[in-house]
From TrEMBL:
Binding site for ATP: K41
Protein name as it appears in the record: non-specific serine/threonine protein kinase
Residue stretches making up the PASTA domain: 361-427, 428-495
Gene of this entry: pknB
Keywords carried by this UniProt record: ATP-binding, Kinase, Membrane, Nucleotide-binding, Repeat, Serine/threonine-protein kinase, Transferase, Transmembrane, Transmembrane helix
CDD domains, alphabetized: PASTA_pknB, STKc_PknB_like
Gene3D superfamilies referenced in this protein's UniProt entry, alphabetically: 3.30.10.20, Phosphorylase Kinase, domain 1, Transferase(Phosphotransferase) domain 1
Residues annotated as domain Protein kinase: 12-280
Pfam families hit by this protein: PASTA, Pkinase
């Protein structure tokens, strides 16, 4: 991870790369004027080639910068920087200076599976609060999806990228390109899929899709291509979330059904209305809109289509069912057939005219092997295959710090273009603390060390006047030191012996003191030697145990010169 080091607008220092999305690279940065940490989104320079996009982007970023709400990632500034490419040409690179959010993307949270209903409701309430505020300010988000919702470490919900989708879809990009840039079509409303005008209710549909995914762990419609997914948003009925996750209450099923109504007039009309029903559902009551309404909104769970052909097959089957089961008046049958033809024509137009003309293929991608690369190189390799990357740090015993350890989905798996790949980057070996095992028997101490993730090393013995045999005197490294997980810890244990010094030449009282300090004892009956030549201190002439290692508390007999 290299620091870019550039200064944008003479003020924002571009730091380490922290993420790469479908349309941008995101770096940590510093606002040098205010000395604060910011996130810097550098938009792909290919987008900046279109002057209409640049104008629209500036306007939208300015509108977003006017919004200040705790549930919205603050936009502080936006602009363009002239960049000289390798061939010496100057190009404009748009950038956005945002509040830095220390947290996780909702898409990464959902990757772990369905959330508890209460948590899903709490997060969606945050999203709806943000939408209520932005819709009042006249800003429609247009790209509400788990990849634009962050959850801070304290659990706060923050929605980002207001207005950016508008800048993209209003420039000369095709629908297929827009889909590829903005990610999958999973969160598109029916009106977006049909290329119609959008309004605040479009965001509420997408919020309904996000709620569905939080409750079930998967979006309501899946398919191999954006077209197959968009088709289902227009014409298929979503399953009840409770048919996928039985912990979801009927009340929440009803809220999701209303949010996902195909006709925007059947949906929640405002974010506040949606939030109100969520609160009612969370309290265990059924929202006011009636059960009969719910029955109309949900059909039987549709099979998961794998492509446009399957979608068409399903469509013709539906037609057959309409004819045989309900027997509606002929005029309705013909109206139904007509609308089906219109949809098929729209999809065919999209498939055969727009998608091939764009340089963004819609087939699936294989996740490449990127372990061992830096995040920067890995995300570039993913971007080559139209895949986005999110960085998640994790300790690794084997992979060097700063290098990719693994991905989710793993390499070799096939995914749709625009899919977010979680890229795990090594923070080096996990740090563990050496437990304090002094005064513990060696067997207990060794168990404590292995239990704390370290390896047992050499055991050496050392004399100790007081500590019992095979009890730990100290470790190396000593207790409370932080070390790499798996480090080897050496032990020094008591030998149960003590060093007896040479006592000859010492007076009896000096010898008593010396031995006491070593937890040894001088005999109570030292033997006098009268044959020697008397000296003033009556020195010891011999000792019963030779100097050296002796068991603790040994008693030493001595002979002293009494003269
Ligand atoms: N304000 C922020 N604070 C901290 N990290 C951020 C911030 N914005 C983005 N990121 C990180 O950068 C990554 C890429 O950002 P993001 O998904 O917004 O890019 P994008 O190009 O807008 O993607 P897309 O449009 O495909 O969703 C995110 O997954 C996230 O990890």
């Amino acid at each position: 991870m290299t620091d870019d080091g550039r200064l944008l607008a003479g003020r924002y220092r571009v730091g380490e790369l922290i993420g790469r999305g479908g349309m941008s690279e995101v770096h940590l940065g510093t606002d040098t004027r205010l000395s604060r940490t910011v996130a810097i989104k550098l938009l792909k320079s290919s987008l900046a080639l279109d002057p209409a996009f640049r104008t629209r982007f500036r306007q939208e970023a300015q509108a977003a910068a006017r919004m200040a709400h705790p549930t919205i990632v603050r936009v502080f500034d936006a602009g363009e920087e002239t960049v000289t490419d390798t061939s010496g040409h100057d190009t404009q690179q748009p950038f956005i200076i945002m509040e830095y959010v220390d947290g996780r993307m909702l898409k990464d949270v959902i990757r772990g599976g369905a959330l508890e209903s209460s948590e899903a409701v709490r997060i969606l309430e945050g999203v709806l609060t943000a939408l209520e505020y932005s819709h009042r300010a006249g800003v429609v988000h247009r790209d509400i999806k788990p990849g634009n919702i962050m959850i801070t470490k304290s659990g706060q919900v923050k929605v980002m990228d207001f207005g950016i989708a508008r800048a993209i879809s209003d420039s000369s990009t095709t629908v297929a390109q827009t889909t590829a840039i903005l990610g999958t079509a999973s969160y598109f409303s029916p009106e977006q899929a049909k290329g119609e005008l959008v309004d605040a209710r479009t965001d509420l549909y997408s919020a309904g899709v996000v709620l569905f995914e939080m409750l079930t762990g998967r979006p309501p419609f899946r398919g191999d291509t954006p077209v197959a997914v968009a088709y289902q948003h227009v014409s298929e009925t979503a399953s009840k979330p409770s048919s996928i996750n039985q912990n979801v209450s009927p009340a929440l099923d009803m809220v999701v059904a209303k949010a996902l109504a195909k006709d925007r007039f059947d949906r929640y009309q405002t974010a506040a209305e949606f939030r109100g029903d969520l609160e009612i559902a969370a309290s265990g009551k059924l929202p006011i809109h009636k059960q009969s309404e719910e029955a109309n909104l949900f059909g039987t769970p549709p099979p998961i289509t794998t492509g446009t052909e399957l979608a068409f097959k399903q469509l013709s089957e539906d037609q057959r069912m309409v004819r045989t089961q309900r027997r509606p008046p002929a005029i309705w049958v013909w109206a139904g057939i007509l609308s089906v033809i219109v949809i098929i024509a729209a999809v065919m137009f999209w498939v055969f005219n727009l998608a091939p003309s764009s340089d963004i293929p819609s087939s699936s991608r294989e996740v490449p092997s990127i372990t061992g690369l830096t995040f920067e190189d890995a995300s570039a390799k993913l971007a080559d295959r139209d895949l986005s990357a999110t960085q998640v740090p994790e300790p690794s015993a084997t992979v060097e710090k700063g290098k990719v350890t693994r991905t989710d989905p793993p390499s070799g798996e096939t995914v749709a273009p625009g899919t977010y790949i979680t890229v795990y980057v090594s923070t080096g070996k996990e740090q563990v603390t050496v437990p304090d095992v002094t005064n513990k028997p060696i067997a207990d101490a060794q168990a404590a060390i292995t239990g704390a993730g370290m390896a047992v090393g050499a055991v050496s013995k050392e004399n100790s006047p007081t500590i019992a045999t095979d009890v730990v005197l100290r470790t190396n490294p000593v207790g409370a030191t932080a070390v790499d997980s798996g480090s080897t810890i050496d032990f020094v244990v008591s030998s149960g012996l003590v060093t007896l010094p040479d006592l000859t030449g010492q007076s009896l009282s000096a010898a008593t003191d010396i031995l006491q300090g070593s937890n040894l004892q001088l005999t109570a009956n030292p033997k006098p030697d009268t044959s020697c030549k008397q000296k003033p201190n009556q020195p010891i002439t011999s000792q019963s145990i030779a100097p050296g290692d002796v068991p603790q508390k040994s008693t030493v007999d001595v002979v002293y010169c009494s003269g």
